């Protein structure tokens, strides 16, 4: 399907958000992805939709980390508002279960926040009766994606809270720092009764999953969006 880039937001030095208008409405579920194709680039790439699922969406958000040497994403820096792209899909089985009445724990590493945005926006926009708590691991304080949106949502929704955990220490940062670990998760999730959704680099997923299992979270309460394209031998193909 044809789509037009309406707006480009510089989230961080390495991450852009593209808001695109669709030629015709598309139906997709919260958590799914669409395949991008752009002119003069021979192969396409899947990107998670950062918007809540819809039966007839006419606008989609995509938040994408740009790899300067990436075979696909390196070209995205040259796109402009008004440019046309082609989208295919939706794809993917990482889908938010709206029927589960459990509170929601979101665990994001870097640009993995993109697909988790679709979940917290679904809960908040639809006024679903459950709490959402986000733990967002970032490399440093300059890499906080959706910084303003998160602050606004936490002020305006009693059922939404979040904690940002920079890996690198900063003199002006007074919260938790370092890699995610059991102590951080114990502080954030307390009794671990949430239904958990995780997205980020594989090492981050492995660590988060290990902590959740150690804390006794059952497997049927853990959902993971694996970046199958982001393995070591394929980094240059991003």
Characterise the protein shown here.
There is one protein chain. This protein has 238 residues and is an alpha/beta fold. It has two domains: 2-91, Elongation Factor Tu (Ef-tu), domain 3; 104-225, Nucleotide-binding domain of ferredoxin-NADP reductase (FNR) module (Rossmann fold). 18% of the residues lie in helices and 35% in strands. The longest helix has 13 residues, at 113-125. It is globular and about 50 Å long. Mean pLDDT is 92; it is low at 229-237.
What topology does this entry show?
Blueprint: E1 2-12, E2 15-28, E3 33-37, E4 45-48, E5 54-65, E6 84-91, E7 104-109, H1 113-125, E8 132-138, H2 147-156, E9 160-166, H3 182-189, E10 195-199, H4 202-214, E11 222-225
Summarize the model shown:
The protein has helices at residues 113-125, 147-156, 182-189, 202-214; strands at 2-12, 15-28, 33-37, 45-48, 54-65, 84-91, 104-109, 132-138, 160-166, 195-199, 222-225. The protein has 238 residues and is of the alpha/beta class.
Key features of this structure:
238 residues, alpha/beta, 2 domains, 6-stranded antiparallel β-sheet
**Distance N terminus to C terminus?**
22 Å
- Helical fraction equals 10-25%
In the CATH scheme, what's the topology name of the largest domain? Rossmann fold
Q: What's the architecture of the largest domain in CATH terms? A: 3-Layer(aba) Sandwich
Number of helices: 4
Radius of gyration: 17 Å
Element-level helix/strand string: EEEEEEEHEHEHEHE
Strand content: 25-35%
What overall form do the CA principal axes indicate? globular
CATH class of the largest domain: Alpha Beta
Describe the largest sheet.
6 strands, antiparallel
Describe the strand arrangement of the main beta sheet, using strand numbers.
4-3-6-1-2-5
| Tally of discrete structural domains | 2
């Amino acid at each position: 399907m044809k789509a037009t880039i309406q707006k480009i937001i510089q989230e961080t030095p390495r991450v852009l958000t593209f808001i695109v208008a669709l030629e015709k409405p598309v139906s997709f579920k919260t958590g799914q992805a669409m395949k991008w194709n752009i002119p003069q680039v021979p192969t396409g790439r899947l990107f998670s939709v950062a918007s809540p699922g819809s039966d007839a969406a006419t606008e989609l958000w995509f938040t994408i980390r740009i790899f300067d040497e990436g075979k696909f994403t390196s070209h995205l820096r040259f796109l402009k508002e008004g440019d046309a792209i082609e989208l295919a899909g939706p794809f993917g089985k990482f889908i938010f279960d709206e029927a589960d009445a459990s509170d929601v724990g979101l665990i994001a590493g870097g640009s993995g926040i993109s697909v988790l945005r679709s979940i917290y926006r679904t809960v908040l926009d639809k006024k679903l009766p459950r709490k959402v708590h986000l733990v967002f691991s970032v490399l440093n304080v300059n890499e906080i994606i959706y910084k303003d949106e998160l602050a606004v949502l936490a002020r305006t929704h009693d059922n939404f809270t979040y904690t940002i955990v920079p890996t690198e220490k900063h003199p002006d940062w007074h919260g938790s720092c370092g890699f995610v670990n059991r102590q951080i998760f114990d502080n954030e999730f307390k009794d671990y009764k949430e239904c958990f959704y995780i997205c980020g680099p594989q090492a981050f997923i492995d660590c988060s999953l290990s902590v959740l299992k150690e804390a006794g979270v059952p497997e049927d309460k853990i959902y993971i969006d694996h970046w199958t394209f982001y393995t070591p031998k394929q980094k240059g193909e991003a």
